[in-house]
Amino acid sequence: MLIKVLLFVSLAVSLLLPITAYVFGLREAGKIKKVTSFGIISFFSIFLTGTVFMFSNAAAETPVAAVAGAISDAGLKFLAAALSTGLSGIGAGVAVAAAASAALSAISENESLMGKALIYVALAEGIALYGFVLSFVILNK
Question: Is the CB of residue 130 less than 8 Å from the CB of residue 91?
């Protein structure tokens, strides 16, 4: 129980650290970047540690813990599928934003580049589809 409380407190601190630094006057570009990068790195490292503790089979000596171990395997499948879909969707969104704006500016200057521009935008959208298909592959294993 103590580990769960410590993980929750450290996650809250890692999320609130960049916000409080901004509010209390660290608005210079170099300082806020350092504080924000520290907050992001600490959040994901604590999140990963909490996930490992949550799905660990520390008490696998009893039959109830054996059932919990089987549930944690299914839970890890769902977590992996959600991460693959979510992160590929975020990556595709970033890629489409960059490719589509560049494609629109290129098309406005030269209309004959429309076919090439659409190919680059479609390739960027394919990233989301790959993550979606990967989540089905993970769930069906």
Answer: no
